[in-house]
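Task card 7
Instruction: Convert sequence to structure tokens.
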Amino acid sequence: QVQLVESGGGLVQPGGSLRLSCVASGSIFSMNAMGWYRQAPGKQRELVARIIGGGSTNYADSVKGRFTISRNNAKRTVDLQMNSLKPEDTAVYYCNAYLQRLGNMRFEDYWGQGTQVTVSS
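Output:
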């Protein structure tokens, strides 16, 4: 089994900051990309930021310059530092990992349960 567990969501005022963390555990052989997605009420899930094993990153245009993704391969963690938060950043944020389980040749997507981020005054 593979588990992704997120932490760090909550309520913050506009202009504030939050840091999300995600740790992957279980029967993992190799990890490729890790990232964060979000889903606001009535909207589709969208990519927020993604980082591959070599360190290359990509961000949604709406968060560039405000959010920073980082990972620790040894600890199997991925963090998302969110600054200058706006009400439109309100959503459930999901951790994602594209990884290979022990004994499985394929890479597959795994998801965390999600953590709520609410930006409101």
